Amino acid sequence: MNSTWISLIIFVCVFGGAFLGLFLRTVLPGHHLSEEARDAVKLGAGLVATLTALVLGLLISSSKGSFDATNTMITQSGAKILMLDRVLANYGSETKEIRDILRRFFSGRVAKIWPKEIGKLLPGTDSSTKFIDMEDIQASLRALVPRSDLQRSFQAQAINISDDLLQLRWLLFEQLQTSLPPMFLGVLLFWLTILFACFGLLAPRNGTVIVVFLVCAISVAGAIFLILEMEKPLTGAMKISSAPMVKTLGRLGK
Questions:
Q1: Can you state the angle between helices 207-230 and 3-27, rounded to 10 degrees?
Q2: What are 209-213's contacts with CB under 8 Å, separation 24+?
Q3: CB 140 within 8 A of CB 98
Q4: Domain ranges of the chain
Q5: Is the pTM here over 0.90, yes or no?
Q6: Which residue in 68, 74, 216, 247 is a FRET match for 38, CA 20 to 30 A apart?
Q7: Three-state secondary structure readout of the chain
């Protein structure tokens, strides 16, 4: 289930909780809404509101940190790819085939993540190159036979950069495996529903109150939507920008 549907379900549950509170206000006996009872409900709602606010704040902060970390790793990967290409260019003409493979490898990876953007900015680029991997490029680098100390230095530098790229790839893979546990999301939804039910129980039933509950429910669902979207930085509505990768791709092989 994608983040849009999850956010919609949360909106319906939270807004429905508010209406449940408004309904209970009309059917409960009067002594259930006495001043003492209302004070107890306010205390309980305040506790749940504090817990919910803390959890939402931590989730937004954690998701934003994860999003920024992924963005940084993507940008670093592009910079290291470009550095590798320049080192191979300095090595000599013997690396022309490896540089061509590197460009096909990179263009295929970029096209998989940003197919529409790459198709518009760099026509002809696609993700059909599936058999090329960084391990293959690294094997080609190790197979080079340097003819001078300078070429040997460039070879060692290129291998080190390819090691960094492999490490970044696995770090990125591990980073993208983390997600918000469904149980955690269910508990948060329960808190929000109970909280809005308490709000409805204490509020009069009129148009202004309903509009306020509507806006609040949309805001809460929007916050959950942002959290879920930032956990998927390579897909969805908040995808990481392709601009750095496109610029890197445009410089490769030159």
A1: 150
A2: 209/22, 210/18, 210/22, 213/15, 213/18, 213/19
A3: yes
A4: 3-251
A5: no
A6: 216
A7: CCHHHHHHHHHHHHHHHHHHHHHHHHHCCHHHHCHHHHHHHHHHHHHHHHHHHHHHHHHHHHHHHHHHHHHHHHHHHHHHHHHHHHHHHHHCHHHHHHHHHHHHHHHHHHHHHCHHHHHHHCCCCCCCCCCCCHHHHHHHHHCCCCCCHHHHHHHHHHHHHHHHHHHHHHHHHHHHHCCCCHHHHHHHHHHHHHHHHHHHHHCCCCHHHHHHHHHHHHHHHHHHHHHHHHCCCCCCCCCCCCHHHHHHHHHCCC
Residue 83 token pair = 């550095």
Q: What's at 34, amino acid-wise?
A: S
